[in-house]
Structure formats: C-alpha cells, structure tokens
Specification:
By secondary structure, the chain is mainly beta. It is about 5% helix and about 45% strand. It is built from 2 helices and 66 strands. Strand 12 and strand 13 form a beta hairpin. The longest helix is centred in the N-terminal third of the chain and has 18 residues.
Length: about 775
C-alpha cells in the first residue's frame, strides 16, 4: 500500500510538472539523448523535485540537467561555388529556445580556419532549415574553404565537414582599388576581362572605370545598380549586355559581337554597332537609347520596338547602313530649333501616320482644305505643285490633318510649331532601301510652277551633292528650305552643291523637308543609301569654303536681328544668265511674310546664288532689296575672295562707293520698300575728276519746284528725284539747258535730285522745297 501511494504521488507530481512545462526537472541518476532522422529520444532517471524555471529567454537552474542545444551544418550541394551566385546552406537545429534567434552561415578563410569568419547569409528561426548565402565577388579562388552555421544564442555549430572550392567562374569584378583605368589589372578581382577570357561585372566604386583610348573587350558585360562605366573609345562585347546601373556609358563605341544574345536593362549608348545577332529583352525595364550612330555592320538587331534615336540641341542620332539587318520598329527624335512658325519636315519611316506627330504638336484644321505656308488654316500641310499658279511658294498648301493619313517618307510637310524648341518623335520601321518619288512641272500659271516639296526619307542625313548627282538633269542643282524666325517672318536658305546661303549646307538633316525646281513635266527622283551621310549635327549654321571671286553680300537690321544674304562667285563654263546646274534662284517671299531680303538681280532674275564665268574691272552685279520694317539696314560683305580687284557697293543714286572690304552702307526706310537697280556690286571705282560745277550742272529748289540748269544742252540727261527714304518721286529727262519740276504735293520737303549725262556719273544734290501759300 505504501508503494502504491508513493507511485500515485510520483504520477501527480510528474503531471503537475508537465502542465507547467518545467523540463527537464529531475536530479538525474542517469540518462541520455539520441536522434535518428527527425526522431529525437531524450531519457532521464532520477529524482523529480528540483525544477528549472524560465521567464522569456531567461533560465534559472540549480546546476542540474540543461536542455541540449546544437547546430549541425549539412552538405553543400554547390561545389564549386561561384562567387556572386546565391546557393543554399542546410542545417539541423537541436533545442534552440530563443524566439529571436538568428542562424548565420559563415565562410572560413582559404585554409578552412574560422578565426575571422565572414557572414554570407542569415535567417531568423528556431527550427532546422536552409540559409540562402552568397559568396562576395572579392573572395579569391580556393579549394579549402568550409562553411558553418551558428546561432545568435552563442552556439557555434559544426562546419560542413568537407573542403569546398570557390571560383570566380569566369567572372572578374571591378573594384577600382588602384585607379579608374579599365586596363589596370589590379582594379579587377581576377584580372582584365576579355572576349575569350572573363565576363565583367561593374560594381559601385569610388573610382568608376573609364575606357579612354585603346579598344577593350569583354565576354558578358554587367553593370550593377549604382555603378558607372564611361566609354570614350571602343568596347567589344562578345556576349550578353546587362545594365542595371546609371544608363549612360559615355560617347564611345559599344560593338556587340555575339551570334545570339540579349540587351538587358536600360542603357543610353553613345554609339552602338551591331556585328552579331541581338534582341532587346522583353522585360519591362529593357530598352536602349542611341545618342550617336547606330551602325548595322552584320547580323541582326531585333529592336522589339524599344530603341530610340535621341536628338538634342547639339546632335541627332542616326542609323548607318553597313550590311546588317534591323528587325522591328524604332522611335527617332528630331530636335527642331527655331522660332514659332512653319517648319519643313519629313518622315524617316515607311509606315508612320500623322497620328505619330499628334503628341508633338497640335494637329488641327479640316483635312484637304486649301491653306497657306504661314496661315492659321491648319497646323500640318502638304504642298501640291499643280495647284499653285502664282509667282511665290505661299499658295498650293492643303491641310494634311487626318490622323490616319500616311507620312510618306519622300514627302515634305509644313508644320506650324508654336515654341522655340520642339522635339519631333516618329515611330515606325526605318527606311533602309532605295525609294523614288515623282516631281512635276505643270504647264501654265506663274513662276511657282515646277517647284516640288520633297523630304529626306532616311533615318540619317543625306548629301545634296550626291542626290543631285544621281538625278542629274532632272532638277535645278539647288535645294531650298524655308527657315522660320517667327510666325510671319523668315527667309529662304539655298545650297547648290558648292556654296549656299543662310546656313544651308550640303547635309540635309533627317526629318527635313525641302523644295526643288524642275523644268520637266514629270520625272522620278531616286533616293538610295549611297547619298546618306553620318553627320550628327547638320542643323547648325554652316560656313562655306571660299569660291573664286566670291562676294557674299549681307543685309541686316540690327534692331530686330533680321538678316539675309546672297552669294556670287565664278566657275569655268558658267554664263551670265540662269544656269540650271549652278545658279540658285531667290524664291519670292510668301504673301504676308514680314521679312527683308537681298538678292543679285541679273537680267530681270533674282538670284540667291549667282555663278558666272569671270569677273573683270567693268563687271556689275546689280542687287534687288526688300526692306520689311522701318529703321536702318546695313548692307555689307560677310566674305570676299577677289584677287587683284577692289570690291565696292555702288549707290547709283548718290554716286557713292562703299569699300566692302572695310565698310557697310546704311539704308534708312519707312518699311515695306522694294529697291531694285539703285545698288550694285562693282569691281572698279569710276573717277573722272569732274565735280558738279565742272560739269556745269546746277540744281536748286525754289517755291513749289526743283530747278535743274546746265550750260551744255546738246544731249538729253536723265533726271530722278527721290525722297530721303530712297523712294522715287519723279523720273524725267532734261532736253535743253533748264528744267523746272513742279513739287506741290506737300507744303515743304527735302528731296534728292540725280542728273545723269551719258558719259558721266550721276550728279546729285539735296534740295529743300517750300510751297508758299
């Protein structure tokens, strides 16, 4: 009975101890612990009356059995282990009791020692599991590494039990330990990368890599987030390109040479050459910008519609055809500088529509309605040669505003832009082949017949000299572009393949529309890749090489920065009249345009570019001038290349010579004035030494009249009277020795009177006429 009572007491105490989770709470006589897989067996024999007490992570014991805690590191499946590549570290945890416990995987040194271990991964928990670990790229290759798992409760577990091999696995990592020089081996964890050697990984560094002069190479290229690579020369990439960094990689060349790889991430390339087969990855953040030249050397580039050719105030990116293939569509930008007003555009895509430009400027106006180059009828217009029967290039425009209408690549368009800067974006398939367009000269009508508005069809500039060379005889050898300086102001630029005016040079930018003139009823103009150029900045003002006997005459109004110019020079075989291959006509300013202009005026024809066969002492190049605004204008020479002869601007009315090598002439005007015949460029100064008195010509004013008297009246003399603005008031002839010209239009005025005898220069005098009442 006593034994039974003791047994029940032991049962009761044991049950109470279990309910309070006081384990183990015995004074052991003997016991043990063993495991088999996930099965654990712990046994104890002894007294049951001394508890171990716990409160949170604290334990109060009296020196008897404690819970056994242990961590065993399992087998590492990855061997060798590649630096930078995540892998799993398995472990078994035994009786870990701290709820905030952290398991940490540690790496030994290359000899297997844990004297200074490196943490390579961690996880919070109490139970067995795995830790995701990564060996840093900076760890050197080796074959005697070990890994162990420890606990934040100060328990250090056993290591994995076998030596591990750690390798860079063909990867070298930029550290920048020495300098920014790509070619310094000590800047890399495993030496220099190369096409057949190592991949490269650029990590953020205080000294980011720079490729300055020589050509560098790499197998796979990866730029990490926050890292920067600057390429000023060339980097050959023989594998994948991945950029998770700062996007821009300098202005140098990246040459992609793999036979089947990807462009991952976002990169802004300076120049990109495709010499293999690449695809822009389909991931959302993958895309590529090209700020310079996209060169198609060989292979194929699949854009997946995610490549953009960028344009800024300094340059516009382009595509250079060199044998490769581009699959997919691209976006091409055109930075269109200048004031608000009509800008002449074209499309470099084969499948773009008007809707492409709707995001760049407002498309408005009833499509198909007649319009004007500077009118408010519509913001996008086409030009129809057959519809313009006038003498200027203002009429013949029709609204082209239906969003589904095609932007045909050879067609010119006039777009009314509203700001000083507009970025035109065109998305589509870039033209890469030969294309042609028809030009016409409709019979009848005015001098605007034969003018055709076409456009550069390529995603690169073209050479005007090359275009007119392959289409020789089909058109005038000069091209023309309207340069807007305001909604109703601007001037015509021209270029004949040798020289030009107002900044237009041989290179016609992508997205650029331009006018040409033909005298043929109908002809096909052919464009081919042979006329394309790689000029990245064709939109800026060009200087022209000096031509024989060149005189570049300039008209300027400094108060409003308005200017225009014309150029004359000599070329063997040219004539004094219009030569279709070399001379550039001066298109008449559109109606309503408030701009001034200057042109050479030879045989009743205005020229922006006048080419003749020779210049001699008695050569005369007359000028025609239009002054739009009131004020003072200066006529000067911005370039002279005449040897052996002086160059003067002659004011035929004042009989005044201005040495164009040293001075300018000033013309005062009330505005909206045309002056033809008064000014000429001459190459001699006629000086017969005869003054007005010696010529016996006397000019004076009296009440209500001007009087001209001369002693010799044998031959008639021409008499011209102008106001102070140069506007003709009277033109007449003196037959004898005295002429009285009534001047009763105003009460009082000052006039300039010019008298010209056949063998003499003009005699002029300023006179005052007062009408007495």
């Amino acid at each position: 009975m006593k034994k039974f009572t003791l047994f029940l007491l032991w049962i009761t105490i044991a049950a109470g101890a279990s309910a309070q989770k006081l384990t183990p709470t015995v004074i052991p006589a003997t016991g043990g612990y063993s495991t088999a897989g996930n099965v654990k067996l712990s046994w104890t024999m002894g007294e049951t009356y001394t508890p171990t007490l716990r409160a949170g992570s604290n334990i109060l014991t009296q020196g008897f059995e404690q819970p056994e805690v242990d961590i065993k590191t399992g087998t590492i499946a990855n061997n060798p282990i590649c630096t930078g590549t995540p892998f799993s570290v398995p472990y078994t945890a035994i009786d870990v009791i701290n709820a905030a416990n952290i398991f940490t995987a540690q790496l030994s040194d290359s000899t297997g020692s844990f004297a200074s271990p490196l943490a390579i991964g961690s996880v919070i928990g109490l139970n067995s599991g795995t830790i995701s670990a990564t060996i840093p790229y900076t760890i050197p290759n080796g074959t005697r590494y070990r890994i162990r798992v420890i606990s934040s409760t100060t328990v250090k577990g056993s290591d994995n039990g076998v030596n591990l091999t750690i390798s860079n696995c063909g990867l070298t990592v930029w550290t920048g330990n020495t300098s920014t020089n790509w070619f310094t081996a000590t800047n890399w964890t495993a030496g220099l990368p190369g096409c057949n050697l190592l991949d490269a990984l650029i990590l953020p560094s205080s000294q980011n890599p720079v490729i300055s002069t020589s050509t560098a190479s790499v197998r796979n290229m990866t730029i990490s987030s926050g890292a920067t690579l600057t390429i000023n020369s060339t980097l050959d990439v023989c594998g994948r390109w991945t950029d998770n960094g700062t996007a821009s990689v300098g202005n140098g060349n990246v040459v992609l040479q793999s036979t089947g790889d990807s462009i991952l991430g976002y990169t802004s390339f300076g120049n990109l050459e495709i010499a293999g087969t690449y695809t822009v990855a389909a991931t959302a953040n993958s895309k590529a910008d090209v700020r310079g030249i996209l060169k198609k050397t060989s292979g194929n580039l699949n854009t997946t519609d995610k490549i953009t050719l960028k344009s800024t105030a300094t340059q516009t990116a382009l595509i250079q055809e060199n044998g490769g293939v581009l699959t997919g569509r691209i976006t091409m930008e055109r930075y269109e500088a200048g004031a608000a007003g009509p800008h002449q555009l074209s499309s470099p895509m084969t499948d773009a529509a008007v809707s492409q430009w709707a995001d760049n400027f407002t498309i408005s106006g009833a499509s198909g309605t007649g319009s004007f180059i500077h009118g408010a009828e519509g913001t996008l217009e086409e030009y129809r040669e057959s519809a313009n029967a006038t003498n200027n290039l203002d009429s013949g425009y029709y609204n082209y505003t239906l969003l589904t209408l095609p932007l045909s690549s050879t067609k010119g368009f006039s777009a009314s832009l509203t700001g000083t800067t507009n970025l035109i974006n065109t998305f589509g398939t870039p033209l890469a082949t030969t294309v042609s367009t028809t030009i016409t000269h409709t019979a009848g009508g005015g001098s605007a017949r034969g003018w055709n508005f076409i456009g550069n069809p390529y995603p690169s500039p073209i050479s005007w000299a090359a275009l007119k060379g392959i289409d020789s005889g089909l058109m005038n050898g000069t091209c023309y572009i309207w340069k807007a300086t305001g909604t109703t102001t601007g001037n015509w630029q021209s270029y004949n393949g040798t020289s030009g005016t107002n900044g237009l040079g041989n290179v016609i930018a992508s997205h650029q529309g331009f006018f040409i003139l033909t005298t043929i009823a109908s002809a096909n103009i052919n464009f081919s890749n042979s006329i394309r150029t790689i000029d990245l900045s064709p939109v800026f003002y060009k200087t022209y090489p000096a031509q024989d006997n060149e005189v570049r005459i300039n008209l300027a109004n400094n108060s409003n920065n308005e200017s225009d110019e014309a150029v004359g020079y000599t070329e063997g075989g040219a004539s004094d009249g219009f030569d279709i291959w070399t001379d550039g006509l001066k298109p008449i300013l559109p109606q309503g345009v408030q701009s001034s202009s200057i042109a050479y005026y030879i045989k009743d024809t205005a020229y922006s570019i006048h080419v003749t066969d020779k210049v001699v002492e008695n050569t005369v190049w007359p000028l025609t001038i239009h002054l739009a605004d009131a004020g003072n204008y200066q006529v000067s020479a911005s370039a002279i290349n005449v040897v052996g002869l002086p160059v003067y601007l002659l004011d035929n009315y004042e009989n005044t010579y201005y040495d164009l090598n040293a001075e300018a002439a000033t013309i005062s005007t009330m505005g909206n004035e045309d002056i033809t015949g008064r000014y000429s460029v001459v190459f001699h100064k006629k000086d017969n030494g005869k003054t007005p008195d010696q010529n016996n010509i006397n000019i004076y004013g009296k009440s209500g009249a001007i009087v001209v008297e001369r002693s010799n009246g044998l031959e008639p003399a021409a008499v011209k009277v102008t106001n102070l603005l140069g506007q003709e008031v009277v033109t007449t002839t003196i037959e004898g020795t005295r002429l009285e010209i009534p001047m009763t239009q105003v009460d009082a005025a000052i006039y300039l009177v010019y008298v010209k005898e056949s063998d003499r220069d003009y005699v002029s005098k300023k006179v005052f006429v007062l009408n007495y009442k």
